[in-house]
Amino acid sequence: MTRGNQRDKAREAAQKKAASQKKGNTMSGTEMQRAKESAAEIMRQKQANGESILFFLFKSLFPRPSLDLEIA
Asked: Small EDRK-rich factor-like N-terminal domain spans which residues (predicted)?
């Protein structure tokens, strides 16, 4: 019954591998907070950069007419 033995050995190896892997978060509370703040600051910078590019494109595509009209 080689097949049954092979299945048992594979099951044991899988259980051993699963036990050796850590589950969940490995960071402490302060490390997690620092990582979140860092990611948030990066996203704020990206958003500000994207908004400035969109503003420039909008201004270049749709220039405002001059308001220097002479009234007769």
From this structure: 1-37
